[in-house]
Amino acid sequence: MRGARPERAVERAIEQSGVIGLGERVLVACSGGPDSVALLAAMHCVADRMQLGLRAAFVNHGLRDSAWQDECVASEIATRFEIPIDVVALEPDGRDEQRLRSARYRALAQVAKRESCNVVATAHHAEDQSETVLLSLLRGAGPSGLRGMRGRRPLQPGVDLARPLLAVPSEKLRAYCHMRTLPYAVDPTNSQTGLRRNAVREALATLRPLFPGLDAAVARAAAVLTDEQDATPRSALRLSVREQLEREDSLRDLDFLHVEAAVRALEGGHTGTFYMKPGIALRIERGVIADIIKE
Questions:
Q1: In order of start, what are the domains of the chain with their CATH numbers?
Q2: What is the pLDDT of residues 230-258, one digit of tens each?
């Protein structure tokens, strides 16, 4: 369609995620892979609208001979968008995933503090969230584990970790790179199913053709559980909406997406008609449920 910009979906996801605020200084972690390349490019596109200060960082663990290629890609993307980039070389320290992740986050937090950034943004996406929730389930985790990765959490005093792409499938991030002709590197360790996360990744890949909405459903469940545990205003509003709707017998089995659309309209103080199911709509006026319409 003339004038359409499908790549805007990735940029819109960042703006609507709510995990990065207006005027913040953000250090974008870029590994050179398609996900983080898409994040860095999309962050550049929304920076003016969100009044963001941007920097990028590449962390080299010193474990792969091809890491220099990843560094070249990250540097090229940063240079293309005129974003300052810091390259951090760590001493090799085994291959334990948890230790590597902790070392990477420490390095990113140090760069963020040095450069006066209050947020470190990473490119964790919808499939990463599904993997995290399933790993937690297999470990026998309780509600805290099953809510998966949080959109934003403290990393170190004065620096938060933000994940604005948790609702975005990886295929959309790769497509974003292709549409914008952005180079990216491919991590060969992603195919090593001996690692637990990669084994789970392979199992989920087998399930997705049978359950096309798998990742979106897991992401929604994790977000709702997080809201409930944190007792957020949205969780209270969601409960209130459901209680009002369930007074009508015909509205007790609504799809979550329909309810969530109404919740977001109420949050934003919007006005409009929202169809809950065939023949039944919710009329919202200035952020208040005005009527249930039966056609």
A1: 8-207 (3.40.50.620), 233-294 (no CATH)
A2: 888 888 888 888 888 777 776 777 777 88
- Please give the pLDDT value at position 240: 86
**Cβ contacts of 282 within 8 Å, gap of 6 or more:** 245, 262, 273, 274, 275, 276, 289, 291, 292, 293
Cα-based torsion angle of the residue sequence 187, 16, 152, 263 in order, rounded to the nearest 10 degrees: -130
- Write the DSSP assignment of 171-202 as a string of letters: HHHHHHHHHTT------GGGG-TTSHHHHHHH
SS3 44: helix
CA distances 48 to 54, 77, 149, Å, are 10, 18, 28
What pLDDT is stored for residue 3 in this prediction? 44
- Specify whether the CB–CB gap between 196 and 95 falls below 8 A: no
Beta bridge partners of 294: 280
Which residues in the chain show pLDDT less than 50? 1-4
Q: Which of 222, 175, 256, 184 is nearest to 9 (CA)?
A: 175
Spatial contact of 45 and 11, defined as CB atoms under 8 Å apart: yes
Annotate 118-143 with b (16+ C-beta within 10 A) or e (fewer). bbbbbbbbbbbbbbbbbbbeeeeeee
Q: Which long-range contacts (CB under 8 A, 24 or more apart) does 231-235 make?
A: 233/267, 234/263, 234/267
Q: Residue written as tokens 């009002």? A: 244
DSSP 8-state symbol, 27: E
Cα angle: 119, vertex 121, 122; to 5 degrees: 150
